[in-house]
């Protein structure tokens, strides 16, 4: 089944008198369990496309079906609810709330999803443990390294067992070694069946995705599958 079905999506911004066509008739289907890297030059529309897929922004025209749910004509509240149920986000700058501990950050999406406190705590704890952050639950983001913060952000994204994980330059703010560790985590999550759509400027990361979609000036100009030999370590559980 396709988890993402975008049909002839456009996004146009008004800039003074002229229209800025940021997405021009994007049609894209993503199968459950796939790992898609979106690449393209700065300003080509990658984040705009990601925000559309993530229900953070609505397209100007076109239709979008997420996990079987037709999203056009849905109101803001319904969109937010669907987003909270289905999508885990990972951002370049981690986007953790600075006043909350690692544990509380991981719990946040579960609060929105209405999961009771005890279960929330337990799941947050398990997620942090799974990502090697079990000892750091009480730390504030400022007390953690970049790689550790991104692990907390990944734990937060996974806490609701999302159907889809969206990542916008998840390794962009990390040194190359830590970036490699985060890539390994993402590969493991995909090997466990999670669907991943990730924006990257890094060709090494794109080479590790199963499928690469290339954007330019708001159009998909290339779409191919990598021939990946799964290394044994990707099949180990996190
Ligand atoms: N809210 C907005 N209003 C007007 N123009 C916008 C808005 N958001 C994005 N744009 C414009 O849309 C174009 C695409 O932006 P987008 O952020 O999607 O690019 P990108 O491919 O993610 O670039 P980068 O690699 O630099 O992150 C840019 O020209 C940008 O200036
Ligand atoms: Mg961007």
UniProtKB/TrEMBL annotation:
<dbReference type="InterPro" id="IPR015854">
    <property type="entry name" value="ABC_transpr_LolD-like"/>
</dbReference>
<dbReference type="InterPro" id="IPR027417">
    <property type="entry name" value="P-loop_NTPase"/>
</dbReference>
<dbReference type="GO" id="GO:0005524">
    <property type="term" value="F:ATP binding"/>
</dbReference>
<feature type="domain" description="ABC transporter">
    <location>
        <begin position="4"/>
        <end position="238"/>
    </location>
</feature>
<dbReference type="InterPro" id="IPR003593">
    <property type="entry name" value="AAA+_ATPase"/>
</dbReference>
<dbReference type="InterPro" id="IPR003439">
    <property type="entry name" value="ABC_transporter-like_ATP-bd"/>
</dbReference>
<keyword id="KW-0547">Nucleotide-binding</keyword>
<dbReference type="InterPro" id="IPR017871">
    <property type="entry name" value="ABC_transporter-like_CS"/>
</dbReference>
<protein>
    <submittedName>
        <fullName>ATP-binding cassette domain-containing protein</fullName>
    </submittedName>
</protein>
<keyword id="KW-0813">Transport</keyword>
<keyword id="KW-0067">ATP-binding</keyword>
<dbReference type="Pfam" id="PF00005">
    <property type="entry name" value="ABC_tran"/>
</dbReference>
<dbReference type="InterPro" id="IPR017911">
    <property type="entry name" value="MacB-like_ATP-bd"/>
</dbReference>
């Amino acid at each position: 089944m396709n988890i993402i079905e975008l049909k002839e999506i456009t996004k146009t911004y008004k800039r003074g008198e002229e229209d800025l066509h940021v997405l021009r008739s994007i049609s894209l289907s993503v199968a459950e369990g796939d790992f898609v890297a979106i690449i393209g030059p700065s300003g080509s529309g990658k984040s705009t496309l990601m925000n559309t897929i993530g229900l953070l922004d609505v397209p100007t025209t076109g239709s979008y079906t997420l996990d079987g749910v037709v999203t056009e004509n849905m109101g803001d509240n319904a969109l937010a609810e669907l987003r909270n149920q289905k999508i885990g986000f990972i951002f370049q700058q981690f986007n953790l709330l600075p006043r909350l501990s690692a544990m509380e950050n991981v719990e946040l999406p579960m609060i929105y999803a209405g999961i009771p406190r005890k279960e929330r705590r337990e799941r947050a704890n398990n997620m942090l443990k799974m990502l090697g952050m079990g000892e750091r639950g009480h730390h504030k983001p400022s007390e953690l390294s970049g790689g550790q913060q991104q692990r907390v952000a990944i734990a937060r994204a996974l806490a609701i067992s999302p159907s889809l994980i969206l990542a916008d330059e998840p390794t962009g703010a990390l040194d190359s070694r830590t970036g490699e560790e985060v890539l390994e985590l993402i590969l493991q999550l995909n090997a466990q069946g999670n669907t991943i759509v990730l924006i990257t400027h890094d060709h090494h990361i794109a080479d590790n995705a199963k499928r690469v979609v290339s954007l330019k000036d708001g159009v998909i100009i290339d779409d191919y599958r990598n021939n990946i030999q799964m290394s044994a370590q990707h099949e180990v559980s996190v």
